[in-house]
Write a structure and sequence with these properties.
Layout lengths: L6 E5 L4 H11 L5 E5 L11 H17 L4 E4 L2 H6 L1 H12 L4 E3 L2 H5 L10 E6 L1 H6 L1 H9 L4 E6 L3 H7 L8 H12 L7 E4 L8 H6 L6 E3 L2 H14 L1 H4 L8 E5 L3 H12 L5 E3 L3
Parallel strand pairs: 1-2, 1-3, 2-9, 3-4, 5-6, 5-7, 7-8, 9-10
Bound molecules: D-glutamic acid.
């Protein structure tokens, strides 16, 4: 049997921790290496090629750490880089390894949440402009109408820590109003960026409580549990000693503190050079 190694989880910054937290809740026995490219976040405004190159570097770095399975816990990277990496790069890098994203698992179930068949999607400029959510949801739920809104400032609010201050209210309200003004029948809003769940208390202040706000973490975690059941050959390659390691391309002190506020305890991080 080959050497067992951790699951790699990647995001442009802190947002992927909202996904990792739910994965750890569901799969506490597994080992994880988290990589945040905080030095180059946000990815949302960057062009296709740049997001692809940065994400590819991160995947290679996690592969070099031994991870046989990497989760792109970032919608922007999933929208702009995943397909290329899966189809073009993986066969030459290591065809036995796997890279999974967060958009497909979300779009496979999101239609089950709506009663009105009107769903709003909030995401980065890159994710929204890619049209990935609209294309994928229509495959699984052709009767659902999608309304989209890019939220250009939200990732910065999270990365800087300003999401915990009143500075967040105005930009959050503005994007929510732009989304909800598109259709009075929206009963479900998907947070299509892994950073946005950190803004949930602010978002809830500006949305009618009848509208449900869906974060992806639990959906992605559930989908990973199912994936590992269907792929025991991959599950057997993953180490299970309940260990987590955190790496950032940015400032390690900032990561430890900022991630800790969200995680409930400080998360010591090591420096990763991509
Ligand atoms: N968490 C990333 C996502 O889900 C944030 C993207 C960014 O860095 O702009 O899209």
């Amino acid at each position: 049997m080959s050497v067992q190694a951790p699951i790699g989880v990647f995001d442009s910054g802190l947002g992927g921790l909202t996904v990792l937290k739910e994965i750890v809740n569901r799969l506490p026995e597994y080992d994880f290496i988290y990589l945040g490219d905080n030095a180059r976040a946000p990815y949302g405004p960057r062009d296709f090629e740049t997001v692809y190159q940065y994400t590819l570097e991160a995947v290679k770095w996690l592969f070099d750490k031994g991870c046989p399975l990497v989760i792109l816990a970032c919608n922007t990277a999933s929208a702009k880089a995943l397909r290329n990496i899966q189809q073009k790069d993986l066969p030459s890098m290591d065809p036995s390894k796997r890279v999974l994203g967060v958009i497909r698992p979300t779009t496979e179930v999101i239609g089950d949440y709506t009663e009105t068949n009107h769903i709003g999607i909030l995401g980065t400029k890159g994710t929204i402009e890619s049209g990935s959510y609209v294309i994928e949801i229509q495959k699984s739920f052709p009767d659902v109408t999608i309304y989209q809104q890019a939220c250009p400032d939200w990732v910065e609010l999270v990365e800087s820590g300003d999401y915990q201050t009143s500075k967040a209210d105005q930009p959050v309200k503005e994007c929510l109003d732009n989304l909800l003004d598109q259709c009075a029948g929206i009963d479900t809003i998907l947070l299509g960026c892994t950073h946005y769940p950190l803004l949930l208390p602010v978002i809830k202040r500006h949305v009618n409580p009848a509208v449900q706000i869906i974060s992806q973490g639990e959906i992605v975690a559930e989908s990973l549990v199912f994936y590992l059941k269907r792929h025991p050959e991959m599950a057997n390659r993953l180490s299970k000693s309940a260990k987590m390691e955190f790496f950032t391309t940015g400032d390690t002190d900032h990561f430890r503190h900022a991630a800790g506020v969200f995680w409930g305890k400080e998360l010591p991080a090591e420096k990763a050079f991509l």
